[in-house]
């Protein structure tokens, strides 16, 4: 997992996110990553996502729970693109407590180009690749 992230978004922990142990439920954390990923994409690509027509789809998610998240933790979701292929790209994300700096949960995910009309994989738009590379300072 990378140590430097160019983008983060604050996460509001809600009472409904808590499990019987008064920790944020693992499923709620998956939603936090979805929220962070969506905000990242809108920020970097400079668009408002219409999920009915957007040409990217999530195809893989892996999460590691390193420390519990409590109701009063001040959490941010940090996101970055780390590699770009022809039809997919890989992202890393983490949930970090702003007060302590402790990384609570990490996530690796893969998004792929997707044609919602034909329901087929498609190449990632070159415009997206260019914007990801520029934002993250990635080499070709």
Describe this entry's structure for a reader.
Strand 4 (88-97) and strand 5 form a beta hairpin. The protein contains 2 helices and 6 strands. With 140 residues, the protein is α+β, with helices and mostly antiparallel strands. Strands 1, 2, 3, 4, 5 and 6 form a 6-stranded antiparallel sheet that branches. The mean pLDDT is 96.
Descriptors for this entry?
single chain; 140 residues; alpha+beta; Thiol Ester Dehydrase, Chain A; six-stranded antiparallel sheet; 2 helices; 36% strand
Beta-sheet strand percentage? 35-45%
Number of domains: 1
CATH class category name: Alpha Beta
Query: Share of helix among residues?
Result: 10-25%
Shape: globular
Unreliable stretches, pLDDT < 50, 5 or more residues? none
The total of beta strands comes to: 6
Number of continuous helical runs: 2
Q: Could you report the average pLDDT, rounded to the nearest whole number?
A: 96
Using only C-alpha atoms, the radius of gyration works out to 16 Å
CATH topology: Thiol Ester Dehydrase, Chain A
State the distance separating the first and last CA atoms: 20 Å
């Amino acid at each position: 997992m990378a140590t430097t992230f160019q983008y983060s978004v604050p996460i509001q922990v809600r009472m409904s996110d808590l499990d019987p142990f008064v920790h944020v439920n693992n499923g709620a954390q998956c939603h936090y990553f979805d929220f962070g990923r969506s905000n990242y994409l809108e920020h970097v690509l400079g668009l408002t996502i219409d999920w009915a027509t957007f040409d990217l789809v999530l195809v893989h998610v892996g999460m590691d729970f390193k420390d519990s998240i409590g109701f009063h933790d001040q959490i941010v979701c940090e996101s970055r693109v780390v590699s770009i292929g022809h039809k997919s790209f890989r992202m890393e994300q983490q949930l970090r407590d702003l007060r302590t700096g402790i990384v609570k949960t990490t996530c690796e995910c893969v998004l792929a180009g997707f044609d919602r009309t034909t329901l087929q994989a498609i190449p990632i738009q070159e415009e997206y690749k260019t914007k990801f590379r520029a934002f993250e300072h990635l080499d070709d």
